[in-house]
Amino acid sequence: MNRTVRLLKRRLVGSIPVLLIVVIGSFLLLEAAPGDAVDAYVASVGGDAGMIEALRQSWGLDASPMTRLVAYLWALLHLDLGHSVAFSRPVLDVVLERLPNTLFLMGAATALSFALGTALGIIAGARPGSARDRFLSIGSLALYAVPGFWLALVLTIVFSVELRWLPLSGMETIASGKTGLARALDIAWHMVLPVTSLGLIYFALYLRMMRAGMAEVWRMDFTLAARARGIPRRRIVMSHVARNALLPLVTMLGLQSAQMLGGSVVIESVFSVPGLGRLAQEAVGSRDTPLLIGIILVSAVLVIVINLLVDIAYAALDPRVGASEASA
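Given the sequence above, the corresponding C-alpha cells read:
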C-alpha cells in the first residue's frame, strides 16, 4: 500500500509541469492564430466598429496576451476555467455537461477493444503459425489499416441506412420521455455504432500485440520447462504465456488513451454524439479560447488519470516495476 501511495505521489508531482506546459502552449498557439471570438461573432451576425470595440472590452480581449495569460493562470489556481463567450456560461459547467458522454464512449470502446483484442490474441498466440493465427493476424492488420471515420461511415450505411437495425445518430431518442432502465437501454442502443467504430480500430492493435507477446514468451526457458514437465497446454497458455504477454498490453492501454480521446472527436462528429469532441469543434468555430483551453486541459487531466490507473495495474501485475519506481 505504501509503495502504491509513493508511486502515485511521484506521478502526480510530475504531472503539474505537464499541465502547465499544456495550458501555456495551448494559449500561445491560439493567440498565434488569426482572429478571435469577436471576429467569429461579427462574421455570423454582423456589427459596426463600435460594437466590436464594446465586445472586446466586455469579453476581456482588449488586454495584451501576456496580461490575459497571467489572469487565466491566476484564475486556474482557484479552479476557475473562465467563462465561455459562445455559451455565455462558465467553462467548467459546459465541459462537465459533455464529459460523461465522452467518458462513456471512451470507456465502452476501450473495454470492447481490450477484451476482444486480448481474447482473440490469446487464441492466435496459443499456436503461433497455425491457420487461425494467420487468419486473425491478417484480419487484424487489414482492420487496423482502415481509417476510423471511413469505418464509421460504412457501418452507418450498412446497419442504419440499408438494414435499419440501429439508430443513425444522436445519444438517445429525442423527446422520448423514457426514464430509468428504458432510457439506459435507449442510450446503449444508440451507442452501439459509435462504440464499435471506435473500438474496432484499437482492437486490432491489441490483438496483434497480444499475439506477438505470446509468440515471444513461448520461446522463453520457463515456458519450455513447463512443457517439459508435462503441464497441460491450456494451463501453460493461461497461467504462464498469456499473463506475461499481458504486461506490454497494459502499458499500451495507457499510451493509447490520448489517441482514443482524439479518435472520439471524429466519431462524435460522425454520429452527432454531444461529447467533448463536438464541443471542441464548436469552440474552434466560434474561436472561444477559454472553452477550448478548458477542453484541452480537462482532456490532459483525463489522460494523466488513465495513465495513473495503468501504472497501478502494472505495479499489481509486476511488483518489481512498482518497487523500482517508488524507491527511485
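The chain has 14 helices and two strands. Try to locate this feature in the C-alpha cell string yourself.
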